[in-house]
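TICKET #2291
ISSUE: user wants both folds in one file
ATTACHMENT 1:
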Amino acid sequence: MSSIASGYLSWSTDVTQKKTLPQLLGTRLQRRRQRCPSEPQLKETVIQFLRHHQNLGDLLLEVNGSMSKCLARYGNPEHPIANSAGKGAFIASVLQEQALQMDLPVGLLAARASMEEVQQIMQQGTMPKRAVVLDSGQRRMFACLLQSMQELLSSNMLSRLQFIEEIWKAKELPTLEIVWRLHKEGIVSLEELLASNLDGSAVVGWLFTDLCLLCLGTEEEHQHEEVQRQILLDIVTVLVRNGFQNLNLVESNPKVQHLMQICFTVLGKMIPWLLDNVRNEGEKEDSAGQKTTLVWLDMFDVTLFHGAISLDSLKQFFYHTLTQVLTYNPVLEASDAIRRQGEWCFAKTKPLLVTLYRKLFVLFSAEEVITHFQQVLESHEVNWQYVLSSASTLLVCQPESQNYLKELLTKLLINSFENYELESIITAFLLARQAALEGPPVFISYAEWFKNSFGSASGYHASSKKSLIFLLKFLTDLVPFETAQYLKVHILYPPYVASKYRVMLLEYISLAKTRLSDLQVSIEELGLYEDLSTANAPPQPQCQAMQDVERAILIFENSGKIPSSVMEASIFRRPYYLTRFLPALLTPRLLPPVQDSRMFFIDSLKKADKIPENLYASYIHSCEREKQRLFEADISMSEEMQHPMEPLRVLTTALEELSNVVTEPSDTGVVSAQIAVIFGQLKTMVGTDDDCTAMDKPIQLETAVHELAPVELEVRDLLLKSFCQTFITATKFSPPQRQGEWASLFVKMLCGHRKLLNAVLTRVLHLITHQGSSLADVHILGLAAFTVHLHILQLMLLPVNSTGHLAESAGQEGLLFAEYLNQFLICRTGELLTFYMRFCTAAVAYAISLSPSPSIDIIKHSVPSGFIRKLQYVVPRLIPEARQDQETVMEPMWHNLVDLHLNWRTAVLSQFKHHTFKELMKMKEFQLTFHEWLMSELAVQPDKDLLSDLDRQDYQHWACYQLYLPCPLSEGGCGGDLETACRIIINALMDFHKRANVQYCKESECSEVSSLNRSCYESITCRLQEMVFDLEKVWTKALNKSSSLGNGHFLLDVFQERVASLELSNLSKKLECQIELQVFIRILVVLPPSLLFKTHKDRLMTTLECEAFFHFTNTELRNDCSKEFVIPFGVTLHFFRGLLNTCVESEEPDCVVADILNIARTRCPLLLLSAAFWWLRLEPVLITQWKRLTDDPLPRELQRMVDNQCWANRLLSGKTECSPPDVPWIVSAFLYFTLKRKVGLAILRTIMRKICAENELVSVLCFSLVDLISSLLKPKDSATLTVALKTCADVVSVLEEQKKSWLNIFSVANKDCGSHQILYSILSDMELKLLPVAFYSLIPGLDPMLLSSIIKRSDFLSVAVILYTAMVKLFLDGEDTFLVSNQCDSQSSKQPDPLGLITRGRQFLLRTILDCPAQTCSQNQLQAAWKDIDPELKAALGHHLNICSGDVLYPEPAML
């Protein structure tokens, strides 16, 4: 460079002077020598030039002309500029020379020069304020500076420590990007930089400020976003790695301890900054704060630190952060938390805070988090808002934490009552309430938790008086801060208190009621059947009252009585009853043409004086106005039914988002969080008056869905639709066992909204039972999955009784929803059979596929047993191939149902042959028994069956003879025994007959009710007859081979077993027994009559036995309420036909008939009495049958009956003959029935006077008394009772004329040993009880002359007093209810009023006592009879007896 300059000067001089050619030629050689100096001279020249013109900073930046390439290739070690050998030496020489001139170390000079250049670069930025990142120009310049510094470091020309000192001495500290680049290029590590400054507070302040600015970003954020993220990640990595080191290493090195303190402090300051930003979320319109917060939240993504930080350090950092969150700004008192914790549930927690919680929970198990919670709560003052909101997030996002929370609550309560520590019990109550806020999918309701903890003698507080006082004192202190719902729980489910401490509890309840009054919530407005919720404010009284009304009507339908809760409310809770319950019950409506249950209930309340007259009149008037308004209405009232659509759109969006997140089943937390969002939105949209009912409490489906608001109906349909769509979406991506917990959480979430749950379940029930045939395959699959999850959740519903009503019993357990649904899956038609097969197949396949284990013991808990049994009935019926033994299938069954071309027949058969399905069928609870098969088959309507008559017969034969007859008893079959099969069929026929007759039928559903005319009752009866005939053949062969008993009365045994299983302690059971009897008689008469007899073969003699049928007649048929005097004609004919059929097989038929009928005369007189009654119809049938069986004359006992009938006919025709040689009461029966049937009883007195035998006359009186009692029990009209009274009076008159003894017929006390024992055995127990009523209905009304004659009888007074006492006892025992007629109004007939009858009987006795003759019996004999009668009558009797004995003065009473 020096030679160039010299030449330039020489050339300038020459051109200014004119020289000659020789001069020019002479200097040429000299110039050539000047242009070629030596190399040392040239170097010296260059150095001298740079010394006068150098700039060290520019030198560091411009060591090469290709600066753009330097930036473009920054970081590439292969670039030529990085391998330039000369530039490093050049810079080093310059630094050394300047250092020598300035008398400074080279390293210090280089450090100062580098830092000065850093300052200049920072000052050249285009950003108006301090920025933590560089702009593009600054970044290019700093890239070159970094390269130079790297070269200086490599040549030991730059001191790292002196450079760090220069950094801290600088007026303005470098920005984070500069520090980061220095750290990344290995020039100055961040650890060295932070540890070098002993002023830790200054370092913390600088780094914290720049970190906040870094999170805030720049105006051109999109250009620097990646750099900003990388800077923050690397710095946080350094801070975490050094801030959470091993304590042993830290304590041994003060420098490391200093660094650790700085990093720890900086990270600690970031959490309050973060929480302040979260708190301000939503307060500003712009999203800058939210973006800033999200940048720092991203640093809690554990995947970013993989390999950079040890797991222990990362856990310590997360623990520390969680502790800081829980303890940040603890200004809220526990009282504030009690009041406001409803605002801190998961759905209401700010999303950024939820994100922070979820990121912090990732590294830990639920148990670790709960344990850390406990440690923080025990050792720090906490911010209850963050504690409770984080607990909600943990419970929602990690469902397994529920059990650990319960354990924590247990520990807290135990500790609080052992040490009487107030903080522990406060913490327990707050955590329990917070968990309950998230609903049943997450935790039990607060009411259930409180009952479980304190509601029994085993509660935490029940160990001592001090513990009880501690609890009540705590609850009392809570009262000023409590919301109404918690106070309701404490009042309605109070803690268990021993009786001697009851006063303390009452004091608390009084205080709680006062607090409720201050909150303007009356305890009187609590619903009769209210289910308390801890999630929200108290329910609206009007809504609760409507639910109470519906529940009360259901109970009234079932029991026929006003519920006791309603009666109690009308007395003890009158304000609620008058102001809430009655207005809800008497809401104006369009009254139905036929009274429904509500109207019957209203009428019952009115009759009980529980509805004021003016209120009832107003209700009727309002209903009329409602009818008029509806009549005049133009169209619908759709405009009045408008509802807010915006919340519905929000719910729709949330449900759609759920459908998106279920495609990633591994991320359970996301699904749980989305379910919680849906849960919160539902609480906002739908009334939450009954949300948090205990999960294990049975619920009842409310059929009054039309009373739901329009928005609630839309929400119901939307939820069901969304579940099905989400299920199909999830199924496309993965099979059931890999779909995660979304479906289970969805169903649990629904259980938190009991009102919506009722609506959804009712809708599911309606879809499956009424619209099943119209459902698409996707709907069937979705509904099946929904039902399975309800089954797994063990959701209980109140069972349905035989009438279709909900069973209402205090001890009644609920049914699982799947079993509840199975009650309605009655296979009546072919369409229903097909649909039920598809639905049950889908449900079973899903349940089996859902199980996480192939173990059958685990699978069985997921599969509804009713569906398995339903498939065992339907599949062989519709698919004949299934009736044959099939090979076992092992392939998964679910893939057959998600095929694009779904073939149900193939899918059903494949499942039916599947190994798991076969294993389930072997288990007892999944077996379809013969009885269950019969009940299902009986319900099929032949006219709507898919099978023809022949196909149905083939199927029934296969099921009866091939499937169930050889099947062992332990598996629900018959064990190869025909008699067992017959017993099962008879039981099934009776059960179905009863169900068909008593089935509850609403007017709109009558067409769907099974009836005997539209069922397979006849075909199953044919199967029974076939088996009975086969059984008779077996008995016949057995009798011929052996002399032992050949057959048995299994038919009657079936009835006796059924009756024995009934508890006949109340009227309803007795009526049920009567129904059983009527059904059994219908079956009895269609089977071979020989079943009534047992055959014995003793050597050469064959005998018959009929004791079982005689017993059946004397006990059951005799007391049959429906019988008219005698047993039915069909049973009577059945007996005699069986007798004739069986006797012809013996050696002497006539003797066999005689033996049986002679036994019947004494042991079963009702049978022969019935024969006398029906003889005109029996005679031709029996004679014809006998002639066909044998040529022998008619058996003499039957001929005797023929003679009795002929004698009665001749007597009526005016011929007087001696009575036939038969027992008197049989002869009298033929006469009485013939007279009654042919000419009436008006001439009975005339006919009776022709009979002189006392027994015959008394028998006729007995028959007439039976007619009188029948008229009293079932009055048809007033003339019937009049005729009956006159008939009895005529018979009594004839008996008195002939001086016959007849009063002893009323002596029921001697019925087992008296002279009229046979006659008593004819009467039913009720007729015997009513003999006193007949006596006092008859005797006082007799002719005075006749009555005078009767009174003079020596035994009259004793009989009258005993009967009067019996009648009074009958009334006191409540038996007068049998006198109430259901067919005739008592005021329009002469049916005696029970109380009036007793009064008249008493007056009659008082009048006639003095007219009675002296008694042959003493006072002691009558004392037992008169001890319970009224004093006046007793005194009159005593006076009369004393007069008769000659002692007119009463003895003085003993004073001592």
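ATTACHMENT 2:
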Amino acid sequence: MRMISLTPAQGIRACCIIALIITFATASVQNVTNNTTAGADNITNTAAATAAAAAGSASPADIVEDESFITHPAPHYLSNGEISALFGKLQDLFPNLATKYSIGKTLKGRQMYALALTASNKDDKNGDLLRPMIKVTANIHGDEAVGRQMVLFLAQYLTMNYANVPEVQLLLNTTEIHLLPSCNPDGFALAKEGNCESLPNYIGRTNAAGIDLNRDFPDRLENQQVSQLRSHKRQPETAAIINWVLGKPFVLSANFHGGAIVASYPYDNSIAHHECCEESLTPDDRVFKLMAHTYANNHPIMRKGHNCNDTFTDGITNGANWYELNGGMQDFNYAFSNCFEMTIELSCCKYPTADTLPAEWARNKRSLMQLLKLSHIGVKGLVTDASGYPIADANILVSGIEDKPIRTTKRGEYWRLLTPGIYNVQALAFGYQPSEPKQVHVTNENSEALRLDFVLSPRELNYDGDFRKVKVERSKAPTNDDDFLTPTKFEHHNFTEMEKYLRNIAESYPSITRLYSIGKSVQHRDLWVMEIFVTPGQHVPGIPEFKYVANMHGNEVVGKEMLLLLTKYMCERFGVDERITKLVNTTRMHFLYSMNPDGYEVSQEGDKSSGKGRANANNIDLNRNFPDQYGTDKLNAVTEPEVAAVMKWTLSLPFVLSANLHGGSLVANYPYDDNENDFSDPVARLRMATTMGRKLNPTEDHELFKYLATVYSEAHPTMHLGQACPLFKNEHFPNGIVNGAQWYSVTGGMQDWNYVRAGVLELTLELGCDKFPMADELPNYWHDNREPLLKFIEQVHNGVHGTVRSSIGSVIASAAVRLNDAKHVSYSSANGDYWKLALPGRHNITILADGFAPYREEIAIPEDTREMRLDVILMRDDPQHWSSANDFRVIENVVKTRYHSNPEIRQRLAEFETRNGQIATFGYAESEFGIYYNSIKLTADIGEPEESKYKILILSSFFDTTSPLGREITMNIARHIREGYKIRDTSTLNLLQRSVLYLLPLTENFDVIFNMYNRNNSLCDPEMGNELADRLLSPESEKKRDLLLQFLENERFDLVLTFTAGSSELTYPKGEPIIEKLAHAIKDSEFSTQPHQCPLSSTRSLHQSSTERLTNLLYKMYNIPVFSLSLSCCRMPIQTEIASIWRTNIDKIKNFLRLIETGVVGQVQSDKGEPLRSAYIRLIDHQHVYNVTRNAARFQIILPAGEYALEISAPNHESLVKRVLITPRELNNLGVLKLSSYTLLTGGVSEVHRLGGGDNVGSASSLSPQTATISGFVLDTSNHPVKHAKVSVTAPQTRNYLRNFTDSLGAYSISGIPLGEITLKVEAPRHVGTGRVLHVEGGAVRGVIFRLGVDEHVWGMPRWLFIFFASITIIVGMIVCFLCVQFLLARRHRADKRYYSFSLLPQKGKELFEDDGEDGETELFRSPIKKSMSIKPYYDVEGLEIERSDDDDEDDDFRNEFNEDSGEEVVMLDKRR
């Protein structure tokens, strides 16, 4: 930048002019932002002195630093508008020093303001030639704000002190400094002051599109293809900085960050791409270390190297050795320009409060000034030709560091930073002879770099080329519009016929089909699937996966036959029909013809609406058997084999779109199929004659689902008319589509499971009113559904698709793809390709992957093609920056993770208490429990009453083999909470103030398990017998088991979290709607990975079963909701994977801890203001009962969001019902609830279970000090629970009959038991009853266990004898039944024989065959006709037919006159024979 020199006379005139400018500026400054205006006075006061300095009038006596800008106005962070005003004022007041400009605009249109500072030297004949350019940038992460303010302070310091400080004068006279305070103004606008870590989803850190700008630059290690792809998606801020860097010959640069205190230098990544701990050095490593040391040594904190939970030798680090970063700005500066840039982390807190800014400036001012002076080390010079003209883009090579040439500017200038030493320097340029190497001795003792010029001689070059053009023509395929190309039968196929049909297709078209089975039915029939694709057998990247499923209900058969016909149709027409050929070439289709072959086999043709064959062989409706987002009932508590096979199949392939073909109606049905409360509302599950009054339950993709349903409906000749079926005449479906929940509730349905669990969009298509139509109707069904079936498949290509890769080109599997911030996700396949269905228009796409920075971009799907391709490059998200954003920068949780021994665990727990005694207590050997279990208790105000706090337990695992992994995660949680408390994180403080957390990392058997791991690091699932879970489930007493159960009982935890492995599920007590909603809240995580299927094994299945049993047991016994979070497939993965497992599960753990933020609290008092300590709260329509605390009668209930009715009751007091609306992340405080007392006139018994299992509140007997409660279990000899066993008190006799029945876990509880000696009797069907005498002293007697043997007697006789007699009786009965049937059939056979009556002919009268009439027949006699006798002519010859003639008309008259009811038989003889 060229500046004008002033002569002394001109300087005097400048003073006068500036005085006028100051007067004008002071008057106009009122238009500037208030805070900026407040600081203008200080700037104005130095303007005249600065002008005098420009004229050469500075005096040594006037050297006084002016830093009034620090405190006046009060320290605060300037907005983007205030920065513009400040830079404009500096330019106006110091026109010879400052120039304001903008390097570009952000995504939101904000200007990226920069300020250039320099002063020309009147003694410099060359003006600004060879004056090095420096830049100082900051705030590339919008929430790292300290550097932003340091740059602004530097601008004010240099301009306001130029007149009086020689150091500043020399710097600006010889250097051109460019200041860019904010590379990311949009992000800064979203960040929040006082937040030391990034906000959720990196809001504020990234730009408005959600892109981390320090991962968006070209990378030196990118291949050309990746670099080209990324260039098209470059953010406007990044593009502006790139153009700025490449457009100016910057020599040295500093980039300010926050979150640590260290000076980091290139490179930031390495060829090996290790996460950390491997240096990646540049050729100029010595220069960079000099720069880093210069800054760190002048910084009072940085030079120590111990801060922010990090240790850096001398306060400096190589970027890659710290953590891997691809696409960073400092590497771009060095690799793609002449600029040597260094990253400087200024503070542990990213966005501290503004009152800390003066101290930050004091620490960094000297470092900044010394760093800026380094632009004058090394050598500099001009490269010209023989005529003196500058040569641009000439390379300056230095011996020993030839890998980094420096290029000359357009004016032929170069600056080569070097440390002291002797070097050989050479200049090379295209079209010129290389210069001779010049030896130079660099000392860096002067104030400027050593001057070294080069003059190059030209040389001639000649290049020729030969080019050819190739023309390519594509031929067209023939088309054919016929239907089937071979004769086709329309008929129903049973399982055998279907199997034969499919095998014939597979053999006839092996190149495009593959027949495979996904499992077997209850009766061991294969579930056959046909794949149709041009290269069947495996997933092909870029090809979407589609599936049709039919015959889920065995008697709904139309879908099955349609798929069989569609398979034949597509195979025949492949290569003939352009549409079919394109579909087979571009879509991998899977057809499951019969999901319920067992049900089909018992169904009947012609069935219109019955339920015969609907269910499978276990009589379970398969479309009620899938896991449901809203609950569990008896229909989906146990997964049927057909359902299990379909779920495993669906999760094994990256399906995009699906349809489930049904019958019984004519409509396209889309999710959701049920509402939140339908599990407790049986009426909602009934299909009524109208859809009016049903509650719509739309998904996040509601409009997309409606479109897909409409596609099928509109393509169908009659479905879109919405006509009702005969049995449901009042059902009307506008446009032939309906939301499932609005029609009727289907809990446990397949289409909802596909959408929620597998990420697949699925519709339920009802193809006709008749479930099992006659075969002759199938042609009509085919004609109606062929086009809709094909058109629906074609929709799989609509939306956005592409490939997700890393910056080094490797594919990224299981990357989550979201549109418009929706929670529903699709996932990239193992090949990195993804498909996300969407409607045309603008969408915000977000792509997340573990270990990578989120990718966000706004896309536009065109209306004409309805699809677009978006290939995405994800930048590696270094663990430490992830830790800063999500884990309070606890580096130990993500770097060099390993399994810690028992002594190390105890040492760490002890250190928690030693260093954080205000929130932590280490419970080791303080009690008998502490001897066996090491635990740490975390809460605010240790030692204060804890009655008003929730109690939360985090247990490493119930399984010894999983505990090594679980306890590492438990220790990570402890460190996370500790650091959150240190930095005063709001959510952490609230957690500690509202709850008491017990963290219990189990240490038993660790050495044995770890030795297994050491012997074989690939050991995934170590095995060990008699684990803790087994002992807890066993009724046998054992010291450690009993201590843990006693601990659970005494502490009465509100929540328990434990860890498992071997699956992808969160296990919790099933059947409780409130618990299920809490579980869904835990699983609701944006950064959750793809739901995966862990390979099953016998041990994993056993652990899962034990986890479910133990979870239900603890809930029944102690009313404790236990959530078991599965961390990984392996129970003991390799140590380096612990960091990834922590990153994957941290959001779910945070969600668990946030459960206490939602619920209801209050206090119960009598009308006299006394606490009612015996009060309890019952949730109406729920089974939950909660007791108040023992002292203040306070209640605090964790509830998910929703509306509830609370009944507050207490003995001898009137109940109170309160309706409350619970909103997310809010505690509804009901205040003090007062109950009015009343006099109890008559007694009664009401059993209300207290928390802890077994205590009853509210009964007259339980209130009496003379009664007690007994609880326990009834088990068989194999320790299995005995259901419906009756437990009764037989002695002493009481006024009320005391008895109860066991539940599904064999648990029972009886209240009102009199004190003293009692006798309990237990009776159960098919078991031998037993009894026991107990001595009851009072309170609650728990754990009374009965074991019943199986009763081997039936009706008083041994079982074998009963079976013998029963078999004989059955055989005799069958013989008698057989004889009776034969007898009845014989009688029926005789009754069916024709009866003929004959008698003697008369002896007198006419001749026998005398002609009496024209008909030639004579009536011989009449006789009474027996009932049931056939009245037909008799013929001598069987089968003889009489030809009808005109004469027969008279016979007809005779027949008409004959009365069949006369009881007479007329026998006619034919005389014509």
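RESOLUTION: both attachments delivered.
EXTRA DETAIL ON ATTACHMENT 2: The longest strand covers residues 1267-1276.
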